Amino acid sequence: MSTPTNTLSGRRRVGLLGHRGLLLVLSFISLFPVLLTVSTALKTPEDVQVNPFGFFSSFSMENIATAWTVGNFRSYLLDSVLLTVPSTALVVALSTMAGYTFARLAFPGRTVAFYLVVLGLLVPFFTYMIPLYFQLRGLGLLDTLLGVNLVLASTGLAFGTFFMRAFFTDLPTELEQAARIDGASEWQLFVRIMMPLVGSGAGALAVFTFIQNWNNFLVPLLYLPNGAYRPLTTGLYLFLGGRSIDIGPLAAGTLITILPVIVLFVLLQKQVTQGFLSGAVKG
């Protein structure tokens, strides 16, 4: 006759198996498109036509070479870097300074100003993207790297400020008071005392913003109309329109687009997880 303890232990094991099974199913569903893209990109063109859903049934770099040269993805990759890195750096720099200001500096209207900034999270980009187009054209920033970097940065400042404020708010005031007594200026206090303590949050914000801007399709498509600069997302769209039958090079272009993001996230996964968990606890 089984005891209640044994019954409970059996139910717990069944529950754990069920959870693990569900996680395996969800992982397979999530990874299947990525694995199929990698498999298709690394096949021979003939194998892609004959066996499109076969996983790694052959190996060839021809599709990647075609996408890199004929599809001009080497130029798109450089343009993506020129659009993503400066805008990400701008978001992190301004968000950390704004988060510090709203969290640690007392000034009239601070709460109202903070909620006005956070209000940007509630305003969809679609509501002002057309007026912004004409504003950029009037300022001579349309179809320029500077203009698109400013637009990409503006879309991430509201979240970045809200995110970084949570880190600065929870820091002990004793550190700040001790630094002021020692004669530290406001800038020295921010750079030398506060910033090292919120490094995980700034790193998480940088990775999140980088991924968001790297994958952004609408902003480059709308504000780079003449094609002087084309990131990977818009390049992939044009490649699809011009060579829609070439599934192999199309998959190779997709692989080139997603590979830098995957590598970045894998390398910084620990920092990103720590940053977001710390922000959730402190917020």
TrEMBL record:
<keyword id="KW-0812">Transmembrane</keyword>
<keyword id="KW-1003">Cell membrane</keyword>
<dbReference type="InterPro" id="IPR035906">
    <property type="entry name" value="MetI-like_sf"/>
</dbReference>
<dbReference type="InterPro" id="IPR000515">
    <property type="entry name" value="MetI-like"/>
</dbReference>
<feature type="transmembrane region" description="Helical">
    <location>
        <begin position="247"/>
        <end position="268"/>
    </location>
</feature>
<dbReference type="GO" id="GO:0005886">
    <property type="term" value="C:plasma membrane"/>
</dbReference>
<dbReference type="GO" id="GO:0055085">
    <property type="term" value="P:transmembrane transport"/>
</dbReference>
<comment type="similarity">
    <text>Belongs to the binding-protein-dependent transport system permease family.</text>
</comment>
<dbReference type="Pfam" id="PF00528">
    <property type="entry name" value="BPD_transp_1"/>
</dbReference>
<keyword id="KW-0472">Membrane</keyword>
<feature type="domain" description="ABC transmembrane type-1">
    <location>
        <begin position="77"/>
        <end position="268"/>
    </location>
</feature>
<feature type="transmembrane region" description="Helical">
    <location>
        <begin position="189"/>
        <end position="211"/>
    </location>
</feature>
<feature type="transmembrane region" description="Helical">
    <location>
        <begin position="81"/>
        <end position="100"/>
    </location>
</feature>
<protein>
    <submittedName>
        <fullName>Raffinose/stachyose/melibiose transport system permease protein</fullName>
    </submittedName>
</protein>
<feature type="transmembrane region" description="Helical">
    <location>
        <begin position="112"/>
        <end position="134"/>
    </location>
</feature>
<keyword id="KW-1133">Transmembrane helix</keyword>
<keyword id="KW-0813">Transport</keyword>
<feature type="transmembrane region" description="Helical">
    <location>
        <begin position="21"/>
        <end position="42"/>
    </location>
</feature>
<feature type="transmembrane region" description="Helical">
    <location>
        <begin position="146"/>
        <end position="168"/>
    </location>
</feature>
